[in-house]
Amino acid sequence: MHVAMIGTGYVGLVSGACFADFGHTVTCIDKDAGKIEQLRSGGIPIYEPGLEKLVADNVRAGRLFFDTDSREAIRGADAVFIGVGTPSRRGDGYADLSYVYAAAEEIAALVEGFTVVVTKSTVPVGTGDEIEAIFKRVNSKADVAVVSNPEFLREGAAIEDFKRPDRVVVGTTDERAQAVMRELYRPLYLNETPILFTARRTSELIKYAANAFLALKITYINEMADLCEAVGADVQQVARGIGLDGRIGGKFLNAGPGYGGSCFPKDTIALVRTARDAGAPVELVETTVKINDERKRAMARKVIKAMGGEVKGKTVGVLGLTFKPNTDDMRDAPALAIIPALTDKGAKVQAFDPEGHEARKLLTGVDFMDDPYAAATGADVLVIITEWDQFRALDLDRIKLLMNQPVLVDLRNIYKPEDMRARGFAYTSVGRAPV
Ligand code: UDX
User: Fold this and answer.
1) Which among 404, 299, 329, 316 is positioned nearest to 367, based on CA atoms?
2) Which of 191, 205, 261, 265 is 20 to 30 A from 333 via CA?
3) Cα of 259 to ligand 1 centre, how many Å?
4) Final residue of a domain: which of 164, 198, 232?
5) Which of these three, 198, 223, 246, is where a domain ends?
């Protein structure tokens, strides 16, 4: 099949490369000429394990192309995917659909023959109807089916998630479109991946309902962590104890500094807006958003408490800035709330992250170090904000010698309290008794 993918962000680029790897001919289109140039010369604009090789292999095999000009690819496409961003609209939290609608206008003017137009971007319920209206207005003769096909991939595990998903959701009742979508995902059919066909609005909502549920699950265990600290229980054992119940499931029960990233924060807020507008408010999600925002500030207070209540003039070493490991994405990263709360109180912060280079633009008054040991040198406290693998096996004796005093705040629970006590650290984690 011939696929045109509009947008070369996370979703667009990964989906495009994976569809090419499934054997389809894919052209990824982006207006950003610099990005297309970079991709054509083998560079990858984002950090995602395995993506560089996947792109290179498929370019070499003659199945994956990059272009700023969409004309040829759209005319020849069986399916045109819209994989552009839907950021939070400034001020009101609604999803900003201007890129989606601009893509729809562009496609409408160019399609030839029956074409399936698929939104992979996360879009609020009813967006497919709007796209259909754009087609009617711009090109009433266009023979298209507008389909919703939300993407559930996680950054850092994106290729695996695309190629071995728990399910694929396709929102269309059009039989010709269903046939095209079935063909596109054929390798997954062979793997017996459940492929769920629904009405378009249902599919659009499934994506938000899934992300909000996961955000809620994380927030639930974070609240349990606070309760564990208050009553002297261990949140990791609570998580295991409840997670073994098949109805609950053990995934996404890691307590931490609150969820961040490109999806949960914006999608929960957008869902809240949609639900209020529809007269069916989702109060659990509203509360989740509030608790998660507050949590990031609470984490700064935790650090201050671990230092005896005063950070003015003290040095805070920080390990990890990105919203999670294996990504360079800084969007809504807890570090962006925790660190300013510390510097505002007069702390000197020296931070290290293997890929979070963008933090240099987002955080002022922070020293960026080249490795974890440099971040620990002379520090009065060392705070782990993101659980990069390389922080799991630090030379702790060396860290202890480098620090001004051995105080460690582990916001991801990657170390064991008893080990840290044995090594002579004052150790604070999340939902476990401090030592
Ligand atoms: C998420 C969804 O998982 C994915 O299905 C959707 O398509 C996009 O949004 P992503 O944002 O890449 O993916 O990251 P994810 O691994 O879900 O983590 C999101 C945030 O939750 C991170 O800040 C992470 O640290 C946090 N998290 C996750 C926890 O604090 N505890 C957990 O147990 C899991």
Assistant:
1) 316
2) 205
3) 7
4) 198
5) 198
pTM score: 0.95
Euclidean distance between CA atoms 359 and 340, whole angstroms: 12
Task: Give the model confidence (pLDDT) of 396-415 as tens digits.
Answer: 999 999 999 999 999 999 99
* H/E segment holding residue 29: strand 25-29
From the CA of 387, give the closest atom in ligand 1: 25
Would you say the CB of residue 260 lies under 6 angstroms from ligand 1?
yes
Q: Quick check: 407 and 376 in contact, CB under 8 A? A: no
pLDDT for 193 beyond 80 = yes
Q: How far is the CA of 390 from the centre of ligand 1 (A)?
A: 20
Mean pLDDT (whole number) for 138-147? 97
Residue 181 belongs to domain with CATH number: 3.40.50.720
Identify whether 263 is a catalytic site residue: yes
Q: Does 300 share its domain with 372?
A: yes
**Domains identified in the chain, total number:** 3
Q: 252 CB less than 6 Å from ligand 1? A: yes
pLDDT in tens, 40-73: 999 999 999 999 999 999 999 999 999 999 999 9
Structural domain boundaries enclosing 218: 208-289
pLDDT tens sequence across 96-113:
999 999 999 999 999 999
Q: Verify whether ligand 1 is closer than 6 Å to residue 155 (CB atom).
A: yes
Shared domain check, 404 and 307: yes
Residue 434 has pLDDT above 80, yes or no: no
In Å, how far are 63, 84, 154, 167 from 161, measured between CA atoms? 21, 19, 7, 10
Ligand 1 centroid to Cα of residue 385, in Å, is 15
